[in-house]
Amino acid sequence: MTTYFAVIEAGGTKFNCAIMDGDKNIVAETRIPTTTPQETIGATIAFFKQQQGQYAFSKLGLACFGPLDLETASSTFGNITATPKPDWSNTPIRQQLMQALGVDVIIDTDVNGAALAEYLWGAAQGVDVAIYITVGTGVGGGVVINGKPLHGLVHPEIGHILVPDKHNVKCACPFHDNCVEGLASGSSIAKIWDAPGETLSDEHQAWEVATDALAHMCHNLLMTLSPNKIVLGGGVMAKPGLLDKVVAKTNASLAGYLTTSTPLNEVIVAPQLGGISGLYGALALAM
């Protein structure tokens, strides 16, 4: 008898919702725009209620944008907390889904989910320390250590690592000066340069600013967590040549300090799961 899982990749732009089996096959799916919590979560619940008659599932994996309250003893466990996404702060998303669907909801950050998926099935299979970074609308990072997503005081917020101000550019983050997200995310690039990144030429200063920030981020991660793999994904990283530039700048920043037989371009790599890493991450949580 086939076991089915409900999965959600809950992003700031859209909710990717699906029913998947244990072999990673998608048997039903939909995409719901991320508007208000009432509209988006309501439509999500309606989709899964439609599927429950045909595909019985007892678990829902929720790989969600954050920040999240992941402290299991907390009265607000599973809530989205102080997010810059308008209207979504303090949304009890896990509780709403559990009550409406009557199933167990396993929640983690979208990037912790993607990191777990890349560890299980993708570019970081079986390594001791795997980091997944998405550089898209925002910049988020997930960490998997010995097969388990990293939690601590809260969860990794790698996008908000501070980096040097080398270009005298106004950071677009509403919380911090000179953090990675405020300099390298798609939304920040559009705000800083008053144009979407896809419209900017390869020679535009935006890419120097973004790759410098990402290289400093990689340097700091290599020095603090000693990852076997740093997987750089997301829409911004789809730009041809950007990954190579980040690797080269990270290598220059390290200045020969790390002694390892693994070339840096085999440590800092692209995802193998591509655009489905988020759904696979939600499946990994549910399983």
Automatic annotation (TrEMBL):
Record-level Gene Ontology MF annotations: ATP binding; fructokinase activity; metal ion binding
Keyword Oxidoreductase among UniProt keywords: no
InterPro entries registered for this protein in UniProt: ATPase_NBD, Carb_Metab_Reg_Kinase/Isom, ROK, ROK_cs
Catalysed conversion reaction: D-fructose + ATP = D-fructose 6-phosphate + ADP + H(+)
Statement: the UniProt record of this protein carries the keyword ATP-binding: yes
Keywords, comma-separated and alphabetical: ATP-binding, Carbohydrate metabolism, Kinase, Magnesium, Metal-binding, Nucleotide-binding, Transferase, Zinc
EC number in record: 2.7.1.4
Taxonomy, superkingdom: Bacteria
Signal peptide: none
Cofactor: Mg(2+)
Broad EC category: transferase
SUPFAM superfamilies referenced in this protein's UniProt entry, alphabetically: Actin-like ATPase domain
Family: Belongs to the ROK (NagC/XylR) family.
Cross-referenced PANTHER family: FRUCTOKINASE (PTHR42742:SF3), TRANSCRIPTIONAL REPRESSOR MPRA (PTHR42742)
Protein name in the entry: fructokinase
Organism: Neptunicella marina
